[in-house]
Design goal:
Length: about 475
């Protein structure tokens, strides 16, 4: 059996491990989301929230693995003139595909250069879909049915997220080739997930007691804000690794953003940390002036989100200033959600608002910077043929928002028509831990029905009425 040692040289192995670190960091992000939601939901929903989020993430990953990654590889096959580009990509990169199931040392580099790295990048894409599903789940905790959540997550991973990534992310995507620039995948993750979450939360309606008193006394109050801080810190640890893996490393040549824009590991890392610092300082100011502790935790995250599209081409001090605007945009978005009485004060304020503003602002900040294309190609896909402009950044936002809003709305219409979207009132009052799993996770809360609650035999924490002073 012929082997190809160049595929497993020291350079190639080291390159693969850099992307492995980014891939594992996405799991850390999902863990951070679990902790944030565990801190913000009521005690009676903590276990159920963990289970729903992890299951949704794995189901979305399954969808992406079955064939979603092939759509992204199609962009390369098409640009390089591979016959039957999509069919070939699907044959090579579906879960049973030849390239995915052959050891790198056995693959001719003329057919697939840097095979190990490309196989790792397949997993990186899978974890991206997992993160999107986990993020969307955060917008509807405590009230979405598990079956609807899992069905939605599978479709997201199999079809919707791959389509958005195909259009907007990578050096040869249709919009990138014309001037769109999105380094971290702000459109694919934050703008898409935020828009889908907004429509989903709107159609699901607020949790019981959110805007008006409920007979049960139910009130969606946070369970433990310190867990939110722990989750946000995990975000700060993982995001630099995820973002650095969102690019190309050419051994002996340098580091390039995912759109093959000239960049550098040092400047990207500096930009990320300064964006966190800018967002962190302003977030701390908001927290102390408004007496709302969560802004200390969320400020650094919004700083990175608002800078994510251009960190590879931005000067670090630009990221410091733009990152400082992240918490302000998030606060404005949150106030809008409250005014509209939409029960979604996490994903939309922290991802959608800063994501949209950052995409458009990036078009002005990096206006004229070459982007897109691939070395050795000519014509439409020539390296640096396109340039960043506000118009293309805005168009990218409009397209992704439209896809996400339409998809989420159709999903809601179908599941609501079937009566399968929102949990029953009894379930919501009693809590997901007891209703779905027969345990309260803490070992002392009895199962309370809505009828019992209405009769005055329960309080908001499922403890007997009058047991609290």
């Amino acid at each position: 059996m012929k082997t190809f040692p160049a595929q497993v040289s020291s350079d190639m192995v080291l390159l693969a491990f850099i992307y492995i670190a980014g891939t594992l960091a996405v799991f850390v992000l999902i863990l951070g989301l679990c902790l944030i939601d565990a801190g913000l939901v009521r005690r009676k929903n903590v276990l159920h929230t963990w289970i729903q989020k992890l299951t949704a993430a794995f189901v979305a990953g399954l969808g992406q693995a079955i064939g979603g990654y092939a759509l992204w590889q199609y962009t390369f096959n098409n640009a390089f003139g591979v016959p039957a580009p999509f069919g070939t990509a699907l044959k090579d990169w579906w879960v049973g595909g030849a390239f995915l199931n052959t050891h790198a040392a056995l693959i001719n580099p003329n057919a697939l250069p840097e095979a190990d790295t490309q196989q790792v990048f397949f997993v990186f894409f899978v974890t991206f879909s997992m993160a999107v599903a986990a993020l969307i789940h955060s917008s509807v905790v405590e009230r979405i049915r598990s079956g609807a959540l899992y069905a939605m997550s599978f479709v997201l991973g199999l079809i919707v997220v791959p389509v958005v990534a195909f259009l907007t992310w990578g050096p040869l995507s249709p919009l990138t080739a014309r001037g769109l620039h999105d380094f971290e995948g702000v459109l694919t993750i934050y703008v898409f997930a935020g828009t889908w979450a907004l429509v989903l939360a709107w159609r699901l309606r607020p949790r019981l007691g959110m805007h008006a008193p409920h007979a049960s006394g139910a009130r969606p109050v946070p369970h433990n804000l310190s867990l939110v801080g722990a989750g946000a810190l995990l975000f700060m640890i993982a995001l630099p690794l995820v973002m650095l893996a969102s690019g190309f490393i050419a051994p002996g040549q340098g580091y390039y953003g995912i759109n093959y824009s000239t960049s550098g590991i040092g400047t990207v890392l500096s930009g990320i940390v300064l964006a966190m610092i800018g967002g962190g300082v302003v977030g701390a100011v908001l927290a102390h002036t408004r007496r709302e502790a969560q802004w200390v935790f969320f400020g650094p995250v919004t700083g990175v989100v608002i800078c994510g599209s251009i960190i590879d081409v931005a000067k670090p001090w630009w990221c410091l200033l733009l990152g400082a605007a992240g918490p302000v945009v998030a606060l404005a978005t949150m106030r809008l959600m409250i005014r509209l009485r939409v029960d979604e004060l996490k994903v939309v304020p922290l991802a959608l608002g800063p994501g949209i503003v950052g995409m458009i602002a990036g078009g002005f900040i990096a206006w004229g910077t070459p982007t897109g294309g691939y070395p050795g190609l000519t014509g439409t896909y020539a390296l640096g043929r396109a340039t960043i402009t506000p118009a293309w950044q805005l168009l990218g936002v409009v397209i992704v928002v439209a896809i996400a809003a339409a998809g989420s709305f159709v999903f809601c219409l179908v599941t609501q028509a079937l009566g399968k979207l929102r949990v029953d009132e009894d379930h919501e009052v009693a809590g997901g831990d007891l209703t779905a799993w027969g345990t309260d996770n803490y070992g002392h809360e009895p199962l309370i029905t809505a009828a019992a609650a209405a009769a005055g035999t329960a309080s908001i924490d499922n403890e007997p009425a009058g047991s609290r002073k």
